[in-house]
Design a protein that fits this description.
Length: 350
């Protein structure tokens, strides 16, 4: 700890340098158990006060990153190992406070209790992400990692692969999904667009016990060179072609028929929609004509009323029928006092 205290007292220029061993480091994507860093003192358990506060949960803080990397300038950090020893009761539950490590290439968070992949938006240059032996159920929060080459999610609880995975993570060449909960082979076919995928590990998933599991994956993922840690032989490729070639042709034919039916259905729906639009347009046109006729009738009645008002010397009392089909005029002499109820006694003006 004295060594850490001395490092923190250095000048900013000196503190911005990182050990070369921390700038470049490769982590095996198929490893299941992860060891601690070389300097055991930096991995010591929290103090008694921390134990009472965290109750078994460790938190990723900038101070922790600084102690692990021996680096003040996080931009210079290329490798960050936040894995914990197997069986440790002090583990990370949340991914946090990594925003300043924006040029990180390798991040290891294996053997923790992380449930969600999150807060990695700033790590656009990440090349390796190791999250094995956690509690992850869903692959998310990685859409921006176009440079990611190695993804290790072994020993989690993942059931489905997102459709965007093969569209966004085009640089992936190694994926480890050992011992998850993948039941369907069609989930794996979502990886077909990954033309650089050379290594895939799916052992100990429910699908690994299905008939023709190996041949199915070899046939559909043509770029694979390693499957479950074993190299793919030319003989296996030939067997996969013979086994699934005709099925693939039949599948494509069925897919074409389905697409043709969908197109025909869309055309029928389009025709129905056009007919409905024409009918609605006719109704609207009829309503517009009726409105215009009512406006003309109203103007004519107004002009007639104005004309008769000018011709008659006395006052004119007017009642407009609510149906707007008739206007009744009642002519009153000058200096005639009359109530509203008495106007019905007058004769309507012709």
């Amino acid at each position: 700890m004295k060594r850490v205290a001395q490092m923190l007292k250095r000048s900013p220029a000196a503190g911005s340098k990182c050990p070369k061993s921390l700038q470049t480091k490769t982590v095996s994507p198929n490893a299941i158990s992860w060891s601690e860093t070389e300097d055991g003192a930096l991995r010591e358990d929290p103090s008694d006060d921390e134990k009472r506060l965290y109750k078994g949960t460790r938190y990723i803080t900038e101070d922790l990153i600084r102690r692990l990397t021996k680096c003040e300038n996080f931009v210079l950090v290329r490798t960050l190992d936040l894995s914990t020893s197997t069986g440790s009761d002090k583990q990370f539950r949340y991914i946090e406070n990594l925003e300043k490590c924006e040029r990180l290439h390798v991040l290891n968070l294996s053997n923790n209790r992380i449930e969600r992949i999150e807060k990695l938006e700033k790590l656009c240059q990440l090349q390796q992400l190791h999250l094995s032996s956690n509690r992850i159920r869903k692959i998310e929060g990685l859409e921006h990692m176009t440079n990611l080459q190695v993804l290790n999610l072994a020993f989690n609880s993942i059931e489905h692969l997102p459709v965007w995975m093969a569209k966004k993570l085009r640089s992936l060449h190694t994926i480890n999904l050992q011992r998850n909960k993948i039941f369907s082979l069609h989930e794996i076919t979502k990886l077909k667009p990954l033309k650089n995928l050379t290594s895939l590990t799916l052992a100990e998933n429910p699908i690994s016990g299905l008939p023709h599991y190996h041949l199915f994956l070899i046939f559909h993922l043509r770029s694979l060179e390693m499957l479950d840690g074993q190299p793919i032989s030319p003989q296996e490729r030939e067997q996969a072609h013979q086994r699934f070639h005709m099925e693939e042709v039949e599948r494509l034919e069925q897919e074409l028929e389905l697409r043709a039916e969908e197109i025909a259905q869309l055309q029928r729906e389009r025709t129905t929609a056009l007919e409905e639009l024409e009918r609605q347009e006719a109704v609207n046109q009829n309503l517009r004509q009726q409105h215009q006729e009512h406006q003309r009738s109203h103007e004519e009645l107004r002009r007639e009323l104005d004309t008769k008002s000018k011709l008659v010397g006395g006052g004119v009392f007017t009642v407009i029928n609510p149906s707007v089909t008739r206007v009744d005029h009642f002519v009153l002499p000058h200096n005639c006092n009359i109530t509203r109820k008495q106007y019905f006694n007058f004769r309507a003006f012709p």
